[in-house]
């Protein structure tokens, strides 16, 4: 029997076979642990199936290390959500296996409706997406017709279809700064912490949806200060979905790829990292001489000091990847009627960031409220 549990403001139907952490929200339908022999055999099966099915793996930094390593080893990618979208759009493979959460698979489908997009578990969602239902979001937009609608990638296809611009945490600052430079007022959704951070940094006029990431929202500034005292030379790297008092303690604030870049480039040997602990795999393998500590999510009396792992990212596993490749199950569907409109803000973001990267003038910065 399924149970409805409340994750902060959001009710979510917990899958029947899910596990529940009794002290915190960190439950998930986590794939069963595989033995070494099973892991090796499943990886071989996936390598073979990827070739047979003309498929490529697209993994996020928060998923299991096996899914990150195998993606890279087989010519796929492990990256942040922005580069996942770009890679999936540009790759010639007919099938993309997206290991991450649902909005990442939907974005891939919107950008490449002709491709098959498979995901290990279609229930892998996101509290930001869940907390921004299209009917209420539409009403919010209707109440602010004079504002340019900027939405975070962690949203449904329907919400994207209501937006003028899409952003991820790696380009939100640049895009909002440019919109502000054009005198535009912003309607922002759904992550309030990221929105607050962007507003503080850019001074843009923003009205805000009240959403949060259940993982990053848990980081604790007071506990982080204690950890900093234990490691006085450590630099603090923070994902901007974290609360403002945690961001205030950061030496660098950035998306998952921004955090990796900072760890590589900063002149320090120790780092405290406030993001999902799936990041630790890449941080440690790419920086073997450096030390990484997880930022605390719990108070002093707790036995478990940090449990920053997204329950939905945890649903992705090797067995699921092999199974969907074998059977074609779990193909992402997006209503074809909304794809062209949902694609508009994504294309704008990808064109803007590509231009920014190559030093070209950034395109598309014209008022387009209500664009069809
Ligand atoms: P990035 O865009 O930084 O990869 O973040 C996606 C996400 O879901 C963070 O919680
Ligand atoms: Fe969503 Fe947070 Fe999970 Fe990222 S870590 S997918 S923002 S719930």
UniProtKB/TrEMBL annotation:
Subcellular location, record wording: Cytoplasm
Gene3D superfamilies hit by this protein: NadA-like (3.40.50.10800)
Cofactor(s) this protein cannot do without: [4Fe-4S] cluster
Pathway field: Cofactor biosynthesis; NAD(+) biosynthesis; quinolinate from iminoaspartate: step 1/1
Enzyme class at the top of the EC tree: transferase
Catalytic activity from the UniProt record: iminosuccinate + dihydroxyacetone phosphate = quinolinate + phosphate + 2 H2O + H(+)
Major localisation: cytoplasm
GO MF, one annotated term: 4 iron, 4 sulfur cluster binding
GO terms for cellular component: cytosol
Coiled-coil region(s): none
Record-listed E.C. numbers: 2.5.1.72
GO terms (BP aspect): 'de novo' NAD+ biosynthetic process from L-aspartate
InterPro entries: NadA (IPR003473), NadA_sf (IPR036094)
Role description: Catalyzes the condensation of iminoaspartate with dihydroxyacetone phosphate to form quinolinate.
PANTHER family found in the cross-reference section: QUINOLINATE SYNTHASE, CHLOROPLASTIC, QUINOLINATE SYNTHETASE A
Descriptive protein name: Quinolinate synthase
């Amino acid at each position: 029997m399924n149970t409805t549990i409340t994750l902060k403001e959001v009710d979510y139907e917990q899958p029947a076979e899910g596990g529940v952490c009794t002290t915190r929200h960190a439950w998930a339908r986590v794939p069963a642990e595989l033995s070494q022999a099973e892991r090796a055999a499943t990886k071989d099966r996936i390598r073979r199936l990827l070739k047979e099915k003309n498929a490529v793996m697209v993994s996020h930094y928060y998923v299991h290390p096996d899914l990150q390593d195998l993606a890279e080893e087989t010519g796929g990618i492990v990256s942040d959500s922005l580069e996942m979208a770009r890679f999936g759009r540009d790759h010639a493979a007919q099938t993309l296996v997206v290991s991450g959460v649902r909005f990442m698979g939907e974005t891939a489908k919107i950008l490449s409706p002709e491709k098959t997009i498979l995901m290990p578990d279609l229930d892998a969602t996101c509290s930001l997406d869940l907390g921004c239902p299209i009917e209420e979001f539409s009403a919010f937009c209707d109440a602010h017709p004079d504002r340019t609608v900027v939405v975070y990638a962690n949203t449904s296809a329907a919400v994207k279809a209501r937006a003028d611009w899409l952003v991820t945490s790696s380009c939100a600052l640049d895009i909002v700064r440019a919109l502000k430079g054009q005198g535009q007022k912003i309607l922002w959704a759904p992550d309030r912490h990221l929105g607050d951070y962007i507003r503080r940094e850019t001074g843009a006029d923003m009205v805000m949806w009240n959403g949060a990431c259940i993982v990053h929202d848990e980081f604790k500034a007071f506990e982080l200060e204690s950890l900093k005292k234990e490691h006085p030379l450590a630099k603090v790297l923070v994902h901007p979905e974290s609360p403002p008092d945690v961001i205030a303690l950061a030496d660098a604030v950035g998306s998952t790829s921004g955090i990796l870049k900072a760890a590589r480039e900063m002149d320090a040997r120790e780092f405290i990292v406030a993001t999902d602990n799936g990041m630790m795999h890449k941080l440690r393998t790419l920086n073997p001489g450096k030390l990484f500590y997880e930022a605390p999510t719990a108070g002093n009396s707790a036995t478990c000091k940090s449990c920053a792992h997204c329950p939905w990212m945890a649903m992705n596993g090797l067995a699921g990847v092999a199974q969907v490749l074998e059977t074609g199950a779990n193909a992402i569907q997006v209503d074809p009627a909304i794809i062209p409109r949902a694609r508009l803000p994504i294309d704008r973001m990808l064109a803007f960031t590509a231009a920014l990267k190559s030093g070209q003038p950034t395109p598309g910065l014209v008022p387009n409220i209500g664009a069809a």
